[in-house]
TrEMBL record:
<keyword id="KW-0732">Signal</keyword>
<protein>
    <recommendedName>
        <fullName>Cysteine rich repeat-containing protein</fullName>
    </recommendedName>
</protein>
<feature type="signal peptide">
    <location>
        <begin position="1"/>
        <end position="21"/>
    </location>
</feature>
Amino acid sequence: MKLKPLLLLVACMAAANVGTAATRDEQTRACKHDAIKFCAIHIPNKEKIEACMKEHYDKLSPKCQAMFDPPGSDSQSSG
């Protein structure tokens, strides 16, 4: 079973674009089911999974959405 590599990948993917100061364990718990449901075809490509999760943002569970900046948000600007 490829669950362990998937969990590691989801944790890395979530850490790359978090909207909160969540830990990797929290990110993994929040997003692993959504990653499997919407983006399993892209495993193990981290960049494609991240893009896929962003594409499906509106379908992600609320807990997983909280791990990402909302689409259209400008988290890079300072005001």
